[in-house]
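As a next step, we paired sequence with structure tokens, yielding the entry below.
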Amino acid sequence: MTQVQKVRVAEAESGQKLVQFLSRRVEGRIPRSALMRWIRTGQVRVDRSRSKPFDRVFAGQEIRIPPYQADSSEPIAPARDANPFVLSTVYEDSRLLVLAKPPGLATQPGSGLNDSVHDRIAARFGSHSWQPSLVHRLDKETSGLLLVAKSYAYLQHLHRLWKKGDVTKVYLAWVPGSGPWKAWSKLTDTLPGPEHKGRRPAKSVKAESWVKIIYEKDGLSLVAVRLITGRKHQIRLQLATRGLPVLGDQKYGDDRSGQGLLLHAYSLRFDGLCFELLPPWKGRFQVPKELVQDLHCECLEEN
């Protein structure tokens, strides 16, 4: 059983709801319902006063945390010798971490997985008062750029940009054959809504993107895709329904690449920042820099 703790809200944590703050600061697996009960019964105090679960807490405030039974088990760190995935840093400052996710490494932990980007971040920043958080996700087999916010305030800022459409996202994909998109063309589809733990899918959602074929060889096409919306498997579905599934896509139609799914988050642009990352593909699927070096500016100008 722990003792009563009195902790200060760090700058990186500032602006969170009280229950969010506790869920990150309390060691062990304490159910959210228990945290809510602590707050509602006055066991948690903010600057010695009672608060509500969804009140915001700010830098410098003192939070009283009541005694509780901590989970003594140690988190399982990714076994370095057991996984071949190299997660490298593209850029880092006091607010932002930009990662190069390899194909095959999951973004979030899940059943049957012993490694993920989330786990790597937790291991690296385990001693920090506020563990940096992923801003968005990529499918396990998709490679490319991932953003990580290093403070709660910056995480909220990036989420607002994402929601307003103020983040320009460009992907690259190899597809078999050739499509009609010699210039930037808009694709609009209606896709099934996301499923939630066995419940019926939500109502259908609109999916939009701009696409352009930027290179053709040996009966294959390199396609650039600028996402407008961000639906689950959107690029894979939009291309597959037009008879041009992404090479290596076992779920939607073509697994012949020999290098896994050939879909890559190539560039991100927001707040005057622009990050670009060439795909890790080898051999005939390798993408020379000169093919894509002006792609982002071209995409912005034409759309």
